[in-house]
Structure formats: structure tokens, C-alpha cells
Amino acid sequence: MNQLDIPGMIIFISAVVCLLLALQWGGTQYSWTNARIIALFVISGVLTSIFLGIQIWKGDYATVPPRLIRQRSVAFATAYSFLLGGSFFIIVYYIPIWFQAIKEVSATKSGIMTIPLVLSLVVFSFISGGATTAFGYYVPFMYFGSILSAIGAGLLTTFTTSTGHSQWIGYQVIYGVGIGAGMQMPMIASQTVLNVDDIPVGTSVIIFAQTLGGALFVSVAQNVFGNSLVKGVLQGSPGLDPGYVMQAGATDLGSIIPSQHLLAVQKAYNHALAQTFYVSVALSALSIVGAAGMEWRSVKGKKVVVPP
To answer: In the predicted model, is pLDDT for residue 245 greater than 70?
Structure first.
């Protein structure tokens, strides 16, 4: 029990919760200048500072041992995972909503329609993992993943209410290949640069960063989506209450929204989702900074487990 960083974990979780609430409520439920939102940001910042202090104080017994983050490749791999994870979770969360709202399919069918994304991701994860083992270097795949996922997410922003099968399948495949190429490389990097005893902690930090990036940036994307949708409904259907549209949800648009407003609402949904996908584009593009900071180390001669 003495080796568990319980105070650090409690403080960090509290900081993340405050930040998520601020990102979720800001600009929608409350204005960004509202005292509640400002207070949440301030509290999150203070708690994060305390958490960092605890990590330095606890040293090797910290939740995130400082000596791991001081290792260049681990630090940049963590940043890469944080950004690419954010990009990925946004797309996975909002692509089905596009199918439900624009193509008027059920939640189940919208999940089936994301198979091109999932399948290309899985297949290229195996290909890139095997290629890394064969050629020895993982950094090129990190660059490739950043560039291709940014291109794929950028193509997704071009969706319209009349986008056909070839486009929504092809664009998902491009994005999936990019994510599949890059997503597992930070974990391979941590196994390459760290001592055997540090690998479990290093891998855990990278996986946590990926999950945290998803949680934070999905909240950011939700804010962008909500604000864009409200604005689009007000412009396209002035007589329709945006709150009514938000409450209706994507799956039931066709049955709840009056027919004379349906096309305008679908266009508003499409525009709002496109704006949301831009967040994913930015995150994928920024992740190249993580790739640029990596050391060029070969995995050959190392006992590396390629993640599935």
C-alpha cells in the first residue's frame, strides 16, 4: 500500500473531472465567461499543479515516475498517443451519428457501416506491426499514421447530405489505415527504449494518455458539435427550436422533425459534424510533433511484443 500513489490518483482524477465539466458546459450550458466555468478551469489547473508536485515528491513510487517522462521517446510517445487517441475517439463517436442523422439508419446499422474504418485499422495494425519487426524502425509508421489520419479526417469533413457509398467507405478506410499504422507504435517505442522493469509502467502511461486524450477531446468535440448544430438550426429553420432538435437525437430525426424542416435540420447536422471532424484533423496533424521528437531506435535485438 505504501507504494500506491493514492493521493496523486485522487487529485488527478479530480482535476480531470473538473476539466471535463468545464469543457462540457462551456459555451452550451453556461458561457465561457461564467464564474462556474472559470472556477472549474482554475480548480483543474491548481489540482494538476499539485499532482505534478506529488509526482516529483514520490519519485519512483509516483503514478507517473518522473524519470520515465524525462526519457525523450517516452515523453513524445505519450504526447503522440494523447493526440492520436483524441482524434480517433472523436471519429469513432461521431461517424455513427452522421449515418443516423443523414442516412436515417438505426444505431445498429450505423455501427455496421463503420466496419470499413474498423477493418482497415485492424488489418493495418497487423501489417505495420509486422513491418516494424522486419525493418526495425517504428518512427516512419508514426509519421505515416499522423499524415494519413489527418488526410482521412480531412476527407470526412467534406461529407454532405448526398455523399455516396464509395466516398464514405473510402474515406473511412484512409483514416483507418492511418490510425492502424500509428496507434500501436508508441507502445513499441516504450518497450524499445525502457529497461525491462520499467516497461509495464511506461506502457500503462502511454495507454492512459491515449484514453485521456479520447475523453478530453470528445468533450471538446461535443461542445463544437452542439454550438454548430444550434447555429445551423437557427439559420436553416428559424421557426424550429434548436433545443427540440438536440433532444430528438440523431436516430429519430425522420420521425420527430416536421417534414418541411427535415432537410434543413439534416444540413445543420452535417455541417455541425463536419466542424467536429476538424478537431480530429487538427489532432492528427499535431501528433506529427510527437513523431518528430522520437529517437530513431531499432527494435532488432529487443524482446518487443507487438500490440494486436
So the answer is: yes
**195 three-state secondary structure:** coil
Which DSSP helix (H) or strand (E) runs through 99?
A: helix 72-102
Residue-by-residue DSSP string for 115-149: HHHHHHHHHHHHHHHHHHHHH-B-HHHHHHHHHHH
Contact 297, 192 (CB under 8 A): yes
Give the torsion sign (CA, 177, 181, 187, 188). Answer: positive
Q: What is the pLDDT of residues 185-204, one digit of tens each?
A: 999 998 888 888 888 888 88
Contact between residue 108 and residue 260 where contact means Cβ atoms under 8 Å apart = no
For residue 165, give the amino acid letter: H
Tally of CB atoms within 10 A around 226: 18
Are residues 271 and 78 in contact, defined by beta-carbon separation less than 8 angstroms?
no
pLDDT at 152: 96
Quote the CA–CA distance of 110 and 157 in Å, as a whole number.
Answer: 18
Task: Give the integer Cα–Cα distance in Å for 24 and 16.
Answer: 12
Average pLDDT over residues 145-170: 94
Grid coordinates given for 217: 477531446
The Cβ of residue 115 has, within 10 Å, a number of other Cβ atoms equal to: 12
- CB count within 10 Å of CB 38 equals 14
**SS3 assignment, position 104:** coil
Report the alpha-carbon distance of residue 98 to residue 117 in Å, rounded. Answer: 14
d(CA 147, CA 200): 29
In sequence order, what are the residues at sequence separation of 6 or more whose Cβ sits closer than 8 angstroms to the Cβ of residue 287?
Answer: 79, 80, 83, 84, 87, 142, 145, 146, 149, 182
pLDDT value, residue 265: 86
Alpha-carbon span 20 to 141, nearest angstrom? 31
